[in-house]
Each structure stands twice: as C-alpha cells, then as structure tokens.
Amino acid sequence: QLPGVVRIVGERSRCQIALFGVDLEHVASWPPDSDLAGLAESVRHLQRSFGEDDHETHWKEHGGRLAAIRAVLAGRERIGWVCLIGDHALNRDEVELAGRQAALTVALHYLEEQAATKARANLREEILLHLLRGSPDERRAAIARARYLQVDMRGPLRVAVCRLAGLQSAARAAARSEE
C-alpha cells in the first residue's frame, strides 16, 4: 500500500519522494531506483532540530536540488519522515501540500494497522476465554472463530492457569516497606 501512495504522490507532484521510518530505515521511494544516498543523513541532521510535535515542512538543499522534509506524526508519536525532492523552480505550495497529504496518509495507514493488530489480539484473547470458561455453545463458536482467523487448533493444546494467592497483601507490604 505505502509504495503505491508514494508513487502517486511522486507522479502528481513531479518530485522524487522517499519515505523513511522513525529510525530512518527506507520504507518506500519513487522512482524505485532513486539514489537516496545522503538523504537519510540530511533527515538525521534536521531531526536534531525538530520538536516533538513539529508539523512544519523543512526545506533543505540536497544535491543541487531542493528537499522538503516533513515528520510523519500519528497523534504525538513520530513514526517516520517523508521527503520530496525537486528542482528549485518547483511550486513550494504544491509540494508542501503533497508532503502534508502523504504524511497524513502514512499516519492513517499506521493507525489502521495498529487498530487491526489490537483487534486481532483482543479477539484471540476472547477465543481463549470462551474455550476455557464458556458453555459448550460458546466453545463451538470460539472454535469456528479460531478457524476463520486461521488459528491452528489441531493437535494437543495445553493451557496453564494459575491463581496468585495473597498478591494484594504482598503488594501492600512491599509498598509500606519502601516508605
């Protein structure tokens, strides 16, 4: 998905574009054979001056061209960087808008992935709970949901259940001893 977004932004803005992760690992670029040597270092240099919630586009000279560098934020969390590189004659307003839209699209993609991951984890937890404590009908439904999610239920399965007695009183005693 992200390579397609990067390609569309690059074609529409008539700029070379690169998307880096938060640790400046290459995620996607257009054209695909782009020479990104030095671009990550330019971002690393700018990164030191970025604030935690910096929503600005920063313009920097890069290899005789002009680079627009923008942090990709999901809420207050920085998740990456989008860089558009073009000639000095480019329309800065158009490039800025393209960079904003690309950053927003990447952030929405990230949030969607996070939500899907959380939903899958919650669903697996619910399946396990119904398998352990559910009525026979709930167990059958949990097995059907597990198959639908492609959770392998074949073969011997084991579950360890433990109950910690006296945990509350031990925590209170530990808290008092720290005072």
Oligomer: single chain
Strand elements, count: 5
Any idea what the radius of gyration is? 25 Å
Which range best describes the helical content: under 10%, 10-25%, 25-40%, 40-55%, 55-70% or over 70%?
40-55%
The count of helical stretches stands at 5
- pLDDT averaged over residues: 87
User: What amount of the residues lies in strands?
Assistant: 15-25%
Query: Low-confidence runs (pLDDT<50, min 5 residues)?
Result: none
N/C terminus separation:
54 Å
Choose one word for the global shape: elongated
Query: Class by helix and strand content?
Result: alpha+beta
Strand order of the largest sheet: 2-1-5-4-3
In N-to-C order, the SSE pattern is HEEHEEEHHH
Characterize the main sheet: 5 strands, antiparallel
Describe this structure in words.
- The protein is of the alpha+beta class and 179 residues long.
- It is built from 5 helices and 5 strands.
- It has a 5-stranded antiparallel β-sheet with strand order 2-1-5-4-3, sandwiched between helices.
- A hairpin with a 4-residue loop joins strand 1 (16-21) and strand 2 (26-30).
- Helix 3 (92-133) packs antiparallel against helix 4.
- The relative contact order is 0.11.
- The model has no long low-confidence stretch (mean pLDDT 87).
In short:
This protein is of the alpha+beta class. The protein has 5 helices and 5 strands, in the order H-E-E-H-E-E-E-H-H-H. The protein is elongated, with a radius of gyration of 25 Å.
